[in-house]
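step 3/5: co-fold with iron/sulfur cluster
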Amino acid sequence: MNQVTVKTSANTISETELKEWLRSIGQPEYRCAQIRSWIFKNFAVSPDEMKNVPVELRAKLSEKFSFCRTSEIKSDKSADGTEKLLLKLHDGECVESVIIPSPDRFTFCLSTQVGCPVGCYFCASGSGGLIRNLDVSEILDELFICCRKIGGVPDNIVFMGTGEPLMNYSNLVAAMNIMGGSGYMGISPRRITVSTSGFVPGIIRLADEKKPWNLAVSIHAPTDKVRAALIPLKHRYPIKEICDACRYYFSNTGRIVTFEYTLVKDINDSPSHALELATIAHGCGAKVNLIPLNPIGNPAFSRPEKQIITKFESILRSKKIPVTVRVEKGDNINAACGQLRVSHHGKQVGAVKDPVKNHRVHRDENAVKGKK
Ligand code: SF4
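step 4/5: write tokens
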């Protein structure tokens, strides 16, 4: 029977391991710095790119290590420069990564899983459930492919693509340590944000790492009842437990937590929701990022009108909560999380029933308009 050799991924190898291997094949130690520079500073996807490394050593590197096993199969660029990549993994599964340019910086949005176990009702990524976790090298492949696109490292990395990052904990943390490690890419942990649906055990575990990564929690609702209209029970934690975990995160890391709040028309967008959200954000010392829903085709979930969003924002501000409203990016390129992958696979999104039938709010339209 043929023996299958599993190669070590080049983008996860430590300096010590590489030096040992080079020594074992009679190569000088200085080759280590050369090779690592090609991998972590130049994002090489093949030893053939390592021009200052002898051809024989490049061949040995190819035999011993796997280089980028992920390839770009589709790229959509919107008018504002946001570029969404559909990446094919070694087993044929696909994930999405997004490059978001601003005048003075680049942000990469990376995925951590194929599909997502949480299955938020309004999200394309969760519509097919979890397929599998990405391993460390696959998460880094995403990063390296994006780095090659812009010719350098990004200013910010957000784990807000497909998946619940904290349910792929070990691989996520290992990848972030490589991104931030001084012998690797040297990206400051303060520029890396982990976004979670509110997976409490993961928040506590991440807090215990005592690293200054940013934490964004998709709270999406100010009460458990409203939250139930947006996130299925299986992976939904009570808001009180989430708030306790956020306070613990702040006390361990010193990082102010962000509440991500997807505004969905007639579900969580009323003035009273804003007031309740202000109370819990205040209790956690959290800032709030409002995200007007990017609809995925399910009529049960639509985006509130502009004046509703503005009103919601102004109520939070009046309660002294730091608040931002996410600027629309890439709105002509299937920009909602998971849409590109789902459309590539030809699956229907928004096929879920209307789980919010009984949760729609009666809005006091006059109160909203009166302040506008
Ligand atoms: S919003 Fe995030 S946590 Fe929810 S299903 Fe989509 S990817 Fe998963």
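step 5/5: annotate
The chain has twelve helices and 14 strands.
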